[in-house]
Amino acid sequence: RVRAAMPHAAITTDLIVGFPGETEEDFAATLDVVRQARFSGAFTFQYSKRPGTPAAELDGQLSKAVVQERYLRLVALQEQIALEENRNQIGRTVELLVATGEGRKDSRTARMSGRARDGRLVHFVPGEQQVRPGDVVTTVVTDAAPHHLIADGTVITHRRTRAGDAYAAGQRPSGQLNLGMPGIGQPAATAEPLGCTR
Which of 72, 125, 160, 178 is the most exposed place for a label (fewest CB within 10 A)? Predict the structure, then answer.
């Protein structure tokens, strides 16, 4: 239904392999869902017994070897699908919110990183433009890997933003998000809704 409404949607998920009682048939059904859904990315984890949790007391605990083998099969399938889906992006023009701390910014490639509107990570070459984290650029995808896209061509457009200005001025977010509710110890009258500034 999502793809019918948004054909180019990038859908991600979280998956845990080896929960107590998981049968080979259960795992095969998980692989089938992954094949059908064609997730653009999946945060995949191996179940591990946590003392004090209800799951730790369940019957059907699987051996580490079984969990590891299933995990490797799932990761291999998901990476194959993600690479195929990312290769479908080659040649597309993407708009990116430039980020910091996402990698691929070495001296050899001179790449910066950003997130496309669908959440995909894109490593791009800013060229001669003074692109800053927080700015918005458009560029064309030239290559793909399972976990990111590459845009080694020219930046088509570059829009400077207030977020980029703040980054350039050395201002960093406080880490506090206020949705209009008073903070702890803060009077209600001084609470600022999300997006408001003094």
Answer: 72
Please state, in angstroms and rounded to a whole number, the distance separating the CA atoms of residues 57 and 119: 38
Residue by residue, DSSP assigns 63-95 as PHHHHHHHHHHHHHHHHHHHHHHHHTTTT-EEE
Tens digits of residue pLDDT in 56-105: 999 999 999 999 999 999 999 999 999 999 999 999 999 999 998 776 55
The pLDDT-based confidence of 176 (bands split at 50, 70, 90) is: low
- Laid out side by side, the sheet with 121-124 consists of 143-144, 149-151, 121-124, 112-116, 93-99, 136-140, 157-159
Average pLDDT of the segment spanning 137-165: 94
Q: How many CB atoms lie within 10 A of CB 55?
A: 14
Q: For all residues of the chain together, what is the average pLDDT?
A: 87
How high is the pLDDT of residue 178?
Answer: 59
